[in-house]
Structure formats: C-alpha cells, structure tokens
C-alpha cells in the first residue's frame, strides 16, 4: 500500500542521516549527507518524495486529517524543518488518571476535513475541542534535521548518561523513559516525541502517518513495522540491569575532514 511504503521510505530517509560520514562542504538543511551509497541516495530521494507528496481523497485522506503531507508542517528553512503550525491535544483527568477522551477523537485533534472541493460527496466538519476537555495544549512543529543521529545512538548510551548524571550528585539528573517498542515488542529507551515516549524514528513516522491521515487503516501499521530492522536491539530492561560503562563523553560521530 502506498502510505505504508511512504512510512518506510520516510523512516529510511531519516535513518540515513546517520548512516554516512561527511566529506567536503557541510550539507545544507534538507540535503542528504555527502558520501551516501547509491542505494542510500535512492532511499533518501524516495523518502523525500513521499515526505513532500500530498495525499488526496483517492488515497484515503479524510474525513478528518491534520495535513496533506509531512512537508506541509515540517518545512522551514527547508523540507524536514519546523514551522509555526501547531497541533492540539486535549484530555481530562478521570479517577486521578489522564483520560485522552478517545470517544471524542482525543487526544490528538484533526483540525482539517475533506469537502466537496476535494472531490468528497459531503462537506465534513473538522474536529474541535469537546466541552469535556479540561486539558488543552498546542504543540509547535519542531525541525527533524539530524534526528537520524539520535536514532543511531544505542539505548545503552542513554542509560550510561543518566547514571553519569546521577553520580555527579549535583541535584539534577535525567532518567531514561523506558517504553515498549511496538515494532519489536521489546522495552527500549524513549528518544522522540514531546515526552520521549517513542523509541525510534520508524515508529514515530508510522504514528505520524496514522494520526495525520487517520483513516489509513491501523492494520497497515503492523505491515509498516514488519519491515523495521529493529529487532537486533537489546531490550532496555536488560540494558538497565547491566552495569553501565560510564564515559564522560557523548559518542563520537564519524566525520571525515
Ligand atoms: C499538522 C502538522 C504536522 C504534520 C502534517 C506532520 N507533523 Fe510531524 N510533528 C508535528 C508536531 C507539532 C510535532 C511535535 C509533536 C510531539 O512531539 O508531540 C511533530 C513531531 C514529529 C517528529 C518527532 C520529532 C522529535 O524530535 O521527537 C517526527 C519524527 C515527525 N514529526 C515526523 C513527521 C512525519 C513523517 C510526518 C508525515 C507523515 C509528519 N511528521 C507530519 C507537526 C506535524
């Protein structure tokens, strides 16, 4: 299916940012790193095309959605960047627990809808914040440049950094948010999303597709994930149990002069 391929290509596109060493001129925003193999360049180009391509009613867009393409929001100063576009999340507290109000389409609002102008037989109404919501937040579109590097950092490094911070004893220390990676079923370090709740770019891209163009059937999602080459990762629970090798430096990024 087309969107499934799109997600795979986007994830590959993002991961490739980490895949290769740089050569002469530094790449500009939105460019691939220099030194990619022919197949990596091809995957980058495919991913960029899908990231830019606008979905329509015939692709399954609607009745409600947030954007017609990824680049519609992630665009400044180049494709893959950020923008002033906001998304809205809402919810409430029920019995002391966060309640995403899924019965009203929460927690993420789809604030656009297809109309006759899109070739729909009906003018649909976008979602709005329901009266039951007591929590409403707006999140601005962040740039995605360089996140392939973050994706490539092993989970172990995050545990080591957290342990290092705790060891300093200066009153501030981060904790790794351990989450379930739906692509592997394993526990992993959360690296992406507002609350580090997403373990990899691959999973985030799949989620972005499902939440941006919601009618894409959830059943396509596992299909996306089957292609993930993530099962070589070690479960974060196992990593946390190991004695972390503490190093005061962030991992070196391979770079040619
Ligand atoms: C309507 C605007 C909009 C569209 C369309 C959109 N995004 Fe986003 N994107 C956002 C916002 C806002 C965030 C931050 C939200 C959050 O983390 O909860 C975000 C976050 C992300 C992140 C995580 C960044 C990080 O540092 O953790 C990735 C990866 C991403 N988007 C990829 C995509 C892909 C792939 C698509 C297309 C399928 C897409 N986005 C479509 C607005 C958008």
The total beta strand count reads: 7
Total DSSP helices: 7
Q: In one word, what is the shape? A: globular
Between the first and last Cα atoms, what is the distance in angstroms? 42 Å
Q: Secondary-structure element sequence? A: HHEEEEEHHEEHHH
Q: Describe the oligomeric state of these chains in a short phrase.
A: single chain
Q: Proportion of β residues?
A: 5-15%
- Estimate the mean pLDDT confidence: 78
Strand order of the largest sheet: 3-2-5
Task: Give a list of the ligands.
Answer: heme C
User: How many distinct domains?
Assistant: 1
* Cα Rg: 20 Å
Portion of residues within helices: 25-40%
Please describe the biggest sheet, giving its number of strands, its sense, and whether it closes into a barrel: 3 strands, antiparallel
Alpha-beta content class: alpha+beta
Low-confidence stretches: 1-22, 216-236, 244-253
């Amino acid at each position: 299916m087309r969107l499934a391929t799109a997600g795979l290509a986007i994830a590959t596109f993002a991961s490739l940012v980490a895949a290769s060493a740089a050569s002469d001129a530094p790449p500009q925003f939105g460019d691939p790193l220099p030194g990619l193999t022919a197949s990596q360049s091809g995957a980058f180009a495919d991913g960029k095309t899908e990231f830019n391509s606008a979905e329509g009613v015939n692709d399954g867009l609607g009745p409600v959605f947030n954007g017609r393409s990824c680049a519609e929001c992630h665009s400044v100063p180049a494709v893959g960047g950020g923008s002033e576009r906001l998304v809205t999340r809402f919810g409430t507290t029920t019995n002391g627990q966060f309640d995403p109000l899924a019965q009203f389409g929460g927690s993420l609002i789809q604030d656009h809808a297809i109309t006759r102008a899109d070739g729909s037989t009906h003018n649909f109404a976008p979602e709005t914040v329901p009266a039951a919501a007591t929590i409403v937040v707006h999140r601005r579109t962040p740039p995605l440049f360089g996140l392939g590097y973050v994706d490539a950092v092993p989970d172990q490094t995050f545990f080591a950094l957290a342990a290092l911070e705790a060891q300093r004893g200066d009153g501030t220390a981060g904790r790794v948010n351990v989450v379930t990676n739906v692509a592997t079923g394993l526990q992993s370090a959360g690296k992406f999303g507002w609350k580090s709740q997403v373990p990899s770019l691959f999973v985030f891209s799949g989620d972005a597709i499902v939440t941006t163009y919601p009618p894409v059937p959830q059943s396509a999602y596992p299909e996306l994930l089957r292609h993930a080459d993530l099962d070589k990762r070690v479960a974060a629970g196992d990593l946390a149990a190991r004695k972390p090798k503490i190093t005061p430096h962030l991992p070196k990024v391979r770079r040619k002069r």
